[in-house]
Write a structure and sequence with these properties.
Number of strands: 0
Low-confidence stretches: 184-189
Shape: elongated
CATH architecture: Up-down Bundle
Radius of gyration: 22 Å
Largest sheet: none
Strand content: under 5%
CATH superfamily: MFS general substrate transporter like domains
Order of helices and strands: HHHHHHHH
Structural class: mainly alpha
Helix content: 55-70%
Mean pLDDT: 82
CATH class: Mainly Alpha
Number of helices: 8
Distance between the termini: 69 Å
């Protein structure tokens, strides 16, 4: 999305680079908001899998309307459609990091975080190459709206569905909440019981 939609805004719609960046703001706002809400929800509930499932579903569903992207599509509508995509992509940023760091011992946390980041980079590179191939097979010398829109929809839909499939196979990882590690013993209550008070 962040690669192909600037091409659409600048080369097909004729907007400047500044306007193109402003039109992409809903995507970035959605990602930041989705990331923040994910962290707050996971740390409050202690479960990461449901939030990641919602994010993957939003990503798959949010890209579907781009199948209808045309040269005459209002830029404001295109920007509004980017918000749910950003909300869906947000959980993959912070949520996966939280899950990764809670799935391994503290001694392996750096290795696991680096491995997760590497996997995301490789997935992004492969996804970009596949999407670029789809645009290249559109039969035109330069990208068109009818090539960019379906490419965004297909690549985002496939990414969301693959993420859903992987998450459904994944076990839910217990997350530390309120400074307490999962499985840690519950501290004794500071309030004495009635029996203690009678003694």
């Amino acid at each position: 999305m962040g690669i192909f939609l600037p091409l659409y805004f600048q080369h097909i719609r004729g907007h400047s680079a500044t306007t193109s960046g402003l039109l992409l703001l809903p995507l970035l706002i959605g990602m930041a908001l989705g990331n923040r809400l994910t962290a707050a929800t996971v740390l409050r509930s202690g479960h990461v899998k449901p939030v990641l499932l919602i994010g993957a579903g939003l990503l798959a569903a949010g890209t579907a309307p781009f199948m209808a992207l045309r040269t005459t599509t209002p830029p404001a509508l295109t920007s509004v459609l980017l918000l749910p995509i950003g909300l869906g992509a947000g959980p993959a940023m912070g949520g996966l990091a939280i899950a990764t760091q809670n799935a391994v011992p503290s001694t392996d946390m750096g290795t696991a975080t680096a491995g997760s980041a590497l996997t995301k980079q490789i997935g992004g590179a492969v996804g970009l190459a596949c999407a670029q191939s789809l645009i290249g097979h559109s039969g035109t010398a330069a990208p068109t709206a009818t090539a960019i829109g379906p490419t965004v929809a297909r690549s985002g839909g496939v990414a969301g569905l693959l993420a859903l499939r992987a998450l459904l196979l994944m076990r839910d990882i217990p997350i530390a909440t309120a400074g307490k590690r999962p499985g840690a013993p519950t501290p004794p209550s500071p309030v004495p019981s009635k029996a203690d008070r009678r003694a």
